[in-house]
Model the fold of this input.
Amino acid sequence: MDRSFAYQLWEGIAPIYQRILVHPFLTGLVDGSLPEDHFHFFIVQDAHFLRHFAKSVAATAAIAPRDEWTEFFAECARDTLLVERALHDSYFRGWGLTPEQVYATPIAPTNLAYTSYLLRVAHGASFEEAVTAVLPCGWIYIQVGNELAKQGSPIPLYQQWIEQYASEEYRAIVQQHRDIVDAAAQDLSQSRQDILRQHFTIASRYEWMFWDMAWRLETWPL
Done:
């Protein structure tokens, strides 16, 4: 059995992941009951998120201790902007939205909190912390994508989203990210590894909160 550090991180967020799988936003994607305005909200907020996420990954690349890790995360940052943006743009065209309209939409509170957290870790903590904090986003999405793909969705719009995150190419990227986390954490003390666990757990909680944010169509209370 794989007992790598990354595997232990995943074991630690098992209850969070189970809560994610049964969230009404995701079950609504599968059975087609999710109102499209909630999906619309999610995609617009995800566009905001990915701009900041790419900056977090780029900052992680800048402090990587190995050249091959710098190259990997620099490519991830670029692909986040190019590949994910292409998917989003296909949705925006269907909704008649321009990029200017999308980015003029206020960022939701949970989205701002999550992205601010990732940026703070990437710019103010160690490489080990930064690389672990950005791991849950991709890992949870590939797991969720594969689970949802087993059932599919009757709504073509939702099925397109599911297929994006169930691809083998995406899985390979996440696996390489996990391998880097394992290597970076290998010689750390227990106390340092515990800090990485905290980052992984916090980011995983934010992943649940992001879907919940879209389910509630979250806005600023004041």
